[in-house]
Design brief:
By secondary structure, this protein is of the alpha/beta class. Helix content is 39%, strand content 14%. The structure holds pyridoxal-5'-phosphate.
């Protein structure tokens, strides 16, 4: 592919209020680590997005705003062409982030003390959102066969029955194990949830990062019945590196659930949207497709570099082959270290800041999550430092 965009460019992020770079001390880390943790990219957003934001900034008036027809058309076209999802864009409700929306959905669709199911190891905010809203966390642990992760469907159903689960939070594609769920897997989950009256919150924030001929399937496309039993959480924040603009589109076909979600948002005082978030989202969906295609190609190259380096220089480490996401999951267990010894070697010897596997819950010990959405040279440097782990 002829690269039009320069993803190799290293943009300094120190002293830019970057959570990833500038707050080590506040998070109990020493200075001087190379950060490969939190899920944003060291890569600039697409030029069209930056231009649209600059234009809005130059206008200089940041009064209350709402999404208009053009915004909804951008959503409709993006999901229709990119994900073959012919969705009514007006079923999307805006929220100030996917995690915010998940917390709100938990509150409006379940009662205090109800059980909510997740599949650990999984994005740690799921557990926190359930716990912080006074609901009970129930875990259907993913099974690692030494190479890849699978769903234990018997356990999934048993946990639903035993705990009278009301809500299931699906991570699709899955962070951190990198699975892009196949149609059969999603259908089986959907069927069990329908049979037991479990509503599904499908967090599809990583939907645009899919590798090696895998295809992301929007949960709501499985059938009309499934569409009516789920909320699909989407955002441009991962795909186009816009996390701090706090804009997410939550698609809820089910009228009753959508009304409940809107009411809960209102009761939290959420009304108008962030104008910069709206502008960026619309520009990304209208003009960002080519940039994203090239970025995915570039990130595949980064994964290839990681794979090669592990084979040739770090054979003790195992890359769990990512089908999607830019957050590869790496198995360090052959080193035979305790969690605390592994974590401290990553910091003290490799001088890296990674996400320790244990924060993702059950099954995370012995693993670390890398963020490879960085210029190739940055990744090369990180992998070089990683050799000091032994
Ligand atoms: C699965 C998943 N959901 C949600 C988020 C965060 O979304 P937001 O910043 O919109 O709350 C992340 C960020 O890494 C994520 O991996």
């Amino acid at each position: 592919m002829n690269m039009k965009y320069d993803f190799d460019q290293i943009i300094p992020r120190h002293h830019t209020n970057s959570l990833k770079y500038d707050f080590a001390k506040e998070r109990g880390k020493p200075d001087g680590l190379l950060p490969m943790w939190v899920a944003d990219m060291d890569i600039q957003a697409p030029p069209a997005v930056r231009e649209a934001l600059a234009e809005k900034a130059a206008h200089g008036i940041f009064g209350y705003s709402e999404p208009d027809k053009n915004y909804y058309e951008a959503l409709e076209t993006w999901f229709g062409t990119r994900h073959k999802w012919m969705v009514d864009p007006y079923t999307a409700v805006l929220a100030p982030g996917v995690v915010y929306a998940i917390c709100t959905l938990i509150r409006c669709l379940t009662q205090c003390g109800d059980s909510v199911l997740i599949q650990e190891p999984v994005y740690y905010c799921f557990r926190e959102s359930i716990r912080d809203n006074g609901r009970k966390v129930v875990v259907n642990e993913l099974r690692f066969d030494g190479r890849q992760y699978h769903i234990d469907f018997e356990d999934f159903e048993r946990k639903i029955i035993e705990n009278k689960v009301r809500l299931f939070i699906l991570c699709s594609p899955h962070n951190p194990v990198g699975r892009v769920w196949k149609r059969e897997e999603l259908e089986r989950l959907a069927e069990i949830c329908l049979r037991h009256g479990v509503f599904v919150v499908a967090d599809e924030i990583h939907e645009d990062f899919v590798y090696h001929g895998n295809t992301h399937l929007v949960f709501a496309t499985l059938s009309q019945e499934v569409a009516n039993n789920c909320a699909v959480c989407t955002s441009t924040s991962k795909s186009f590196n816009l996390a701090a603009l706090q804009n997410a589109n939550i698609f809820i076909a089910n009228q009753q659930a959508r009304r409940a979600f809107k009411q809960e948002l209102e009761s939290e005082g959420v009304s108008q949207a962030n104008i910069m978030g709206l502008v960026a989202c619309q520009a990304a969906y209208q003009y960002g497709a080519e940039w994203l295609d090239q970025l995915i190609d570039y990130l595949s190259g980064n994964i290839e570099l990681m794979r090669e380096t592990f084979c040739t220089r770090l054979p003790e480490l195992q890359l769990v082959e990512p089908e999607g996401t830019y957050l590869p999951w790496v198995n360090f267990s052959k080193l035979g270290l305790s969690v605390s010894e592994l974590d401290s070697r990553i910091v003290e010897r490799a001088k890296l800041w990674l996400d320790s596997g244990v924060i993702f819950g059950a099954g995370g010990a012995g693993f670390q999550r890398f963020n490879i959405a960085v210029p190739r040279e940055t990744l090369r440097q990180a992998l070089k430092q990683l050799e000091n782990i032994r």
